[in-house]
Amino acid sequence: MIMRAPLSVFLLLVLVSLQPSQAHGKDGLHKLESLIQEEVLPFTQGFGFPSISSSDGELDIRGMQDGVEDVVSAWYLDDDTEGDQRLPYHRQPDDPVPLAKLLDLGLVALRLDAENHEHDENLTIIRDLRGYMHMDIVELTPKKMPNYETMIKRFFEEHLHADEEVRYCLEGSGYFDVRDKDDRWIRVSARKGALIIVPAGIYHRFTLDTNNYIKVTGKYDP
Ligand SMILES: *[C@@H]1O[C@H](CO)[C@@H](O)[C@H](O)[C@H]1NC(C)=O
Description:
EC number: 1.13.11.54, 1.13.11.53
CATH architecture of the largest domain: Sandwich
InterPro entries: ARD (IPR004313), ARD_euk (IPR027496), RmlC-like_jellyroll (IPR014710), RmlC_Cupin_sf (IPR011051)
Largest sheet: 8 strands, antiparallel
Structural class: alpha+beta
Oligomer: single chain
Order of helices and strands: HHEEEHEHEHEEEEE
Pathway: Amino-acid biosynthesis; L-methionine biosynthesis via salvage pathway; L-methionine from S-methyl-5-thio-alpha-D-ribose 1-phosphate: step 5/6
Bound molecules: 2-acetamido-2-deoxy-beta-D-glucopyranose
Mean pLDDT: 78
Pfam families: ARD
Number of helices: 5
Helix content: 25-40%
Distance between the termini: 14 Å
Enzyme class: oxidoreductase
CATH superfamily of the largest domain: Jelly Rolls
């Protein structure tokens, strides 16, 4: 998966260089950007639709979206978020974002059985499909982290990856903020049982909420 982005960029460069009339100036650049987006997005989005093959036959991944609204919700952040990053910052009036819109951005939200995460065949299937070899479990809470306040500020720095990011909330809760296509921040609240896949190449950041506790597993970039 790490190889995929550079390879597709390379192929697109070849493609664009074969069409010199489109490769010049701002237009050419835009074209290249949109081609890269088109190349990357279906790959990340493909996960959500509608059934996928596994060695056991067909698995309806949409089944894992049942009840996801109970553990994932999203809204546009208020313009003024100058205070504590852990506050929800709903807009007035509230401006909720449906999960279908998150999927348009390539962000997949599923619901798994967090109680059973050690023996969950669905988690195994997802891991096999997406190549999540090693997943660490971390607990973020002031009790266990003397430098908690510094750490949460670090998580909250906006960034993006060349590879997708997966986070599975086993206990507690937290906020994954992602930017939409117009660069507006969407706050995604994930609670126990929520598995979130943030696609490659979109700006995001993480924070605990005011509960100050999350037990989360994921594939962390080395
Ligand atoms: C796995 O997902 C399917 C839906 O795709 C669901 O019916 C089933 O209950 C899930 N299994 C577990 C152990 O959560």
